[in-house]
Amino acid sequence: MVYLDLDDFKAVNDRLGHEAGDAILGELGRLLAENTREEDVAARYGGEEFTLVLPFTGREGARAKAEELRALVADHPFPAGSGSVAAQLTVSAGVAYLEEEEEAEARADMEALAESLLRAADDHLYAAKAAGKNRVPAGS
Prior knowledge:
By secondary structure, this protein is an alpha+beta fold.
């Protein structure tokens, strides 16, 4: 699981307005959907936060995908309404994963599994923010 959060998004909304902010969130959702596999799930979690479920990916694959998406967002010109382009945006990300042996045990309680993964990814996301934003922490 990858948990992404747009860095300093409140300032973007304050500067450009909520309509532009909504357009940016839609564009980010489109970018995520276009840059994930068919079996992956990319969804807005709330506010400016998105989650990606990456089955059969493993730790290094999930970290690599998170880093790929972080770089993609940093290089992408987001629309800011009325034809203008917003300042470049960045995301921070946290990654959580299960080892194969943990996955078999966890399938018995999928709700608890989802909550546990999200909590771990969220912890790593906060570490990325604390380390300066626009990053995927090495410990993820």
